[in-house]
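Researcher: Let's try something more involved. This one mixes different molecule types, so please make sure each is placed in the same coordinate frame as the others.
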Amino acid sequence: MKKLINDPDQVVADALVGIEAAYPGRLAVDHAHRVVHRADAPVRGKVGLVSGGGSGHEPLHAGFVGPGMLDAACAGEVFTSPTPDQVLAASRIVDGGAGVLHIVKNYTGDIMNFEMAAELLGAEGGPPVASVVTADDVAVQDSLYTAGRRGVGVTVLVEKIAGAAAAQGRGLADVAAVAARVADSGRSMGVALTSCTVPSAGRPTFDLPEDEMEIGIGIHGEPGRFRRPLGSAAEIAEQLVVPVTDDLDLTGAPVIALLNGMGATPLLELYVMYGEVARLLEARGVGVARTLVGNYITSLDMAGCSLTLLRADDELLGLWDAPVDTPGLRWGA
Amino acid sequence: MKKLINDPDQVVADALVGIEAAYPGRLAVDHAHRVVHRADAPVRGKVGLVSGGGSGHEPLHAGFVGPGMLDAACAGEVFTSPTPDQVLAASRIVDGGAGVLHIVKNYTGDIMNFEMAAELLGAEGGPPVASVVTADDVAVQDSLYTAGRRGVGVTVLVEKIAGAAAAQGRGLADVAAVAARVADSGRSMGVALTSCTVPSAGRPTFDLPEDEMEIGIGIHGEPGRFRRPLGSAAEIAEQLVVPVTDDLDLTGAPVIALLNGMGATPLLELYVMYGEVARLLEARGVGVARTLVGNYITSLDMAGCSLTLLRADDELLGLWDAPVDTPGLRWGA
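Model: All components are placed in one shared frame. Result:
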């Protein structure tokens, strides 16, 4: 295992020290609870957005904390759900009097722990809480850690778009409805060329022969649909585009496309892949209005990529274009 | 070799198709010359900024084309200098009547070909050309492809800051002077945990045993200072910070810090590294005013990172903070 780390069991704690040092005045960290939050939290009168999950997917979630996106992110251990205590602490930190939205990826532990935190908040007379669950991965119906589809790339889009709605001063029900609409309107599919290696395990999560790839991989290395010989970018693009566009009609609407690197795939390859994806989408009559190409929801040092397509509309595009100021996404601010 | 590509010999051409598809209306590509340029080039009355070099370092350079940064980037073959013809074509495209600045990394082929292009431009009565050479890598004095120090991470900072100066409408001599000041005021040092693999070669550029790292690596896999057993993030940070801060006094001035991933290193590890770098800099009395943590000047699929520190001042910070709108760097716009 070759990684730029100190103690494999301290990776998350050490990374939080680093992200706090890198963005002083913008981000602050509650190290006891491993919560990264806006330095100016809570923002009075604004719905507070909390997300989180296992670490190892950076910039998701901590790198998406800032004006126009999340108010706080809970960092679980690598590939491990954050505890109810963490979510509770984060929700208290961001409570500006307008309620709190929890953005949760569909994994059994995450769902359970965010729900428990919402109950604890209710019991202590805390702010009203709404939650949205992302479950956009078309690869498999149920999986290792999931009842129903896994939540993957659309989470980035939910955090951005709901964050913009909250920044406009909309109420909790409205922000939650926007978030749910995004979650419902996006689909994803991924491919791995290599496994990732969890630091505390010290060896690859799974074996993938030198001449094979895994189609439909999860962001924790969960099994996908099938393995096949390593294909060309054009072939791989087809393996991603077809199941996504078969699952959801994306014609006749502006689409937001996220071509995401899994952590160890360089941008040069993502550009090659995007060229193939764009060609296939055009042939299928899908009109891409906005693109994001890069590393946004990673899987440690896995090589590979995922494609997320969102059926948007003018309202969602406007929220997408609104200013955002986070380490991972920043524009107009 | 596991890569998301089609034909290994068509990687650059395919990537240019992809980047053009990903940023319609913002970037355009002269495919015959492999020049990526602002879709609205030339900008009348503005100094045109041209850079370029071998491909494989994305987002550098094509990903830094846009308002507030480069007007055009020439994409050479992987790790191969662009030809004089490419630089000539790019310079013509961006000529808005106020002259052209060439930003060149210090590699023998790059220097020669940019110079030749400048001569050809002069011979055809083209715009006045100034050029700035980056040579910020403190690792080695001369190297495989270089007389003098290699140009690495400071190139990103030169492109951003000179781009902002040009966007303010400053004249060629002034923009060139700002660029030179940045180039002179930055130093870098890198480390590799793995080799990169050039697509057309199909095998790693060099062998690095599983338990070793190479300190002072170049961005093409050129040999560094020495190899040693893989260290902790804290030890590696010291190997980067000490030679950089020994080479240039960074105390008493606001510093811009770029902690750059080499392509296959995930952000989680870069955050861990930045925590260690920040601790060492604070102990040495270096005050970091701005940070950039992520993949900005990569080396294909190399695992590792580099640290670039720039001794800035109020003028350079102001130019750094100015709006920029490129695929790789974007804020305030």
